[in-house]
Amino acid sequence: GQQVMQIPQYQHVQEGEDFTTYCNSSTTLSNIQWYKQRPGGHPVFLIQLVKSGEVKKQKRLTFQFGEAKKNSSLHITATQTTDVGTYFCAGPRGWDSNYQLIWGAGTKLIIKP
Amino acid sequence: GAGVSQTPSNKVTEKGKYVELRCDPISGHTALYWYRQSLGQGPEFLIYFQGTGAADDSGLPNDRFFAVRPEGSVSTLKIQRTERGDSAVYLCASSPTSGGYNEQFFGPGTRLTVL
Q1: Strands, E, within chain A: which ranges?
Q2: What is the β-pairing status of strands A71-76 and A19-25?
Q3: pLDDT value of residue B103
Q4: Nearest chain B Cα distance for residue A9, angstroms
Q5: Is the pLDDT higher at B100 or at A9?
Q6: Most buried of A19, A41, B23, B76, CB within 10 angstroms?
Q7: Cα(B103)–Cα(B105) distance, integer angstroms
Q8: B101 to chain A, minimum CA–CA distance in Å?
Q9: Cβ atoms B9, B110 nearer than 8 A
Q10: B59 CB near a chain A CB, below 8 Å?
Q11: Mind telling me how many Å the CA of A43 is from chain B's nearest CA?
Q12: What would the pLDDT profile of B8-36 be if each residue is shown by its tens digit?
């Protein structure tokens, strides 16, 4: 069945270092969404990418959608303690369904003390 | 404005018991979703409502799970004969509409523990 895979599972960084998580779908996606979940919290929407090759920036966060619309990445520059949490990508099941999202397992960003 | 609310925040029950989990979506949101999230995993889709009707219940794991949304607002997820494997955080989300590209707004979740 359709799968969305994310790597790495965890990433430990020193504050100020960069962080990147990668998302790969087994099928072409009509769009991809990114969410952030703080420890003990619930997922919060960050962004949606729709176009092939799209790049969007939110301050220190850069989101990319691959040319084939099967992969995506999130890069955080100069991490801060407020960035701690788990970052999920999610894509719709099938081409014309936007409500049934298939989620990656997430990448947990951990700031080293 | 008020976000998505879920009650109870925690529920501990014994194997074999019946539980109901409630979700109150953002006012005016027609689409409502239930997910289940196990530790270290992403949310797993359970069911989607558009208005009062369950538009897609293909994610419900078996017939012990059922959800309703009788007036197109509040939804209740019902689990019969609970099993230890049902232990998870149950998340509810809503969006203004389905279709198109709408972000989903999540509630804080109900942590269900089946002993």
Answers
A1: 4-7, 10-13, 19-25, 32-37, 43-49, 55-58, 61-65, 71-76, 85-92, 101-103, 107-111
A2: antiparallel
A3: 85
A4: 9
A5: A9
A6: B23
A7: 6
A8: 7
A9: yes
A10: yes
A11: 6
A12: 999 999 999 999 999 999 998 999 999 99
Non-local (6+) Cβ contacts of B85 within 8 A are B114
User: Measured between alpha carbons, how far is A19 from B114 in angstroms, rounded to an integer?
Assistant: 37
Q: For A58, left (φ over 0), alpha (ψ -120 to 50), or beta?
A: beta
Query: Which of A4, A43, A48 has the CB atom closest to B101's CB atom?
Result: A48
Tokens of A109: 């960003």
Q: What are the pLDDT digits (tens) for B40-70?
A: 899 999 999 988 888 889 899 999 999 999 9
| Token pair for B100 | 């198109």
Both tokens of B71, joined, read: 């007036």
What CA–CA distance (Å, rounded) separates B45 from A57?
A: 28
CA distance B60 to A16: 42
Instruction: Tell the residue number behind the tokens 């999920």, with chain if given.
Output: A88
Residue type, A16: G
Tokens standing for B97?
């509409």
Cα gap A22→B107, rounded to integer Å: 26
Residue to substitute from A87, A100, A107, A110, interface B, most B β-carbons within 10 A = A100
3-class SS at A25? strand
